[in-house]
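Structure (tokenized):
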């Protein structure tokens, strides 16, 4: 059910400036509680980090939000690009992308034989209105649509400083470029919330610093919120407005980077300083 109000079934609520609210999210694999009654919310234009030790359940949280996994319990309320609030649980992953919730993956997944701009265009296929047949036959409607999205893809590449190499093949490009292309793809779907899975993994120091600036610029230019998982603590503390720390699928703390760094439970679980 789509709602304009802040209520669903008179129970769960979502604030006016809240883009995503997960409540009591839980999923178990066999006897293992990978996510255990987790709740947090993300505000509009907020950069929100999810941290925790290896195996804490971070990727599983992402998969439950995007419905790659169906949670055993809980709600995932999302304010979509039409300002409608809906529980995403039970929706299909492609429906969720259309609502403006998009993600990148830990491993870059590009088509090496395609140019960079064509790889970005792949990100817009979900928006195409023309039928598959008219796309294959390159009928006028499909050609017009492709031209529109190609222009948008070029604009996105221009914004990311990659316009000059847009026609080069993805094969052989530096890892930093491939990561940017993956990010560029998410911008083709009118994102309201972009989920980044370890965006700084594999980047060197200067690429990581450049990525921090780029994520901030994207948030401002595309007017969206960001949820990210990242092991590079400097990246997380420099970039995020708020951080949620989890351990064994459970919430440890939510707060500003300073509050999280000072939190003893987080230090014990994540930074390994508790017993010192
Ligand atoms: N499909 C699955 N089947 C069984 N167990 C799973 C599945 N997915 C995740 N798990 C388990 O759930 C727990 C949480 O895994 P998850 O990958 O979410 O952790 P993470 O915090 O993302 O770890 P990392 O930082 O190493 O990527 C782990 O114990 C993992 O083995």
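Design, position by position:
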């Amino acid at each position: 059910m789509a709602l304009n109000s802040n209520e669903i079934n008179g129970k769960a609520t979502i604030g006016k400036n809240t883009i995503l609210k997960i409540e009591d999210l839980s999923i178990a694999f066999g006897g293992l509680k990978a996510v255990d009654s987790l709740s947090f919310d993300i505000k509009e234009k907020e950069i929100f980090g999810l941290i925790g030790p290896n195996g804490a359940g971070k990727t599983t949280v992402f998969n439950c939000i995007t419905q790659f996994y169906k949670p055993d319990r809980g709600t995932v309320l999302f304010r979509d690009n039409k300002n409608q609030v809906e529980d995403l649980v039970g929706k299909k992953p492609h429906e969720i992308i259309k609502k403006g919730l998009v993600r990148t993956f830990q491993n870059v997944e590009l088509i090496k034989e395609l140019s960079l701009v064509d790889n970005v265009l792949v990100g817009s296929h979900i928006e195409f209105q023309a039928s598959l047949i008219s796309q294959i036959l390159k009928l006028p409607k499909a050609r017009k649509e492709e031209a529109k999205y190609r222009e948008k893809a070029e604009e996105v590449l221009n914004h990311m400083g990659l316009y000059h190499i847009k026609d080069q093949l993805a094969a052989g490009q530096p890892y930093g470029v491939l990561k940017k292309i993956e990010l560029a793809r998410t911008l083709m779907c009118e994102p309201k919330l972009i989920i980044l899975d370890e965006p700084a993994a594999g980047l060197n120091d200067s690429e990581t610093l450049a990525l921090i600036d780029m994520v901030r610029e994207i948030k401002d230019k595309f007017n969206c919120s960001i949820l990210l998982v990242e092991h590079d603590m400097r990246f997380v503390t420099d970039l995020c407005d708020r951080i949620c720390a989890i351990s064994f699928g459970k919430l440890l703390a939510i707060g500003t980077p300073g509050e999280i760094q000072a939190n003893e439970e987080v230090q014990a679980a994540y930074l390994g300083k508790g017993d010192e």
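Reviewer-requested clarification: Residues 7-107+191-271 form a domain with the Rossmann fold fold (CATH 3.40.50.300). The radius of gyration is 19 Å.
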